[in-house]
Amino acid sequence: MRSGAYASGGIECGLLHMACAQMARFYHVPYGGYIGLTNSKVNDAQSGFETGMSAVAGVLSGIDMLNMGGLLDALKAFDFAKLAIDDEIALMLNASSAGWNSAQRTCRST
Fold first, then answer.
1. Percentage of residues in the chain having pLDDT higher than 90
2. Burial class (CB in 10 A: 0-12, 13-18, 19+), 64
């Protein structure tokens, strides 16, 4: 907050993407963005938490495309290990957004 630098891992960016995704759904246009990012400079618990929280928020709000693969330090660094972790997160988000089928109806989050 002191420098005014871009904080891609902050929940405020996730909230902004959520609002844009809801507006895009209202106007029936696709929406995607750099959501699921982190300000962490290394692949640690902070990067996983920030990536997971904002990516789940985006999927629950109906975002169509996530750009999050392996990016660290507010888009300034790339890590192959984080890319593998982000791929797993994306697979879990894809599975959870598909919903589940019961005998009577299909339940979905969006």
1. 24
2. middle
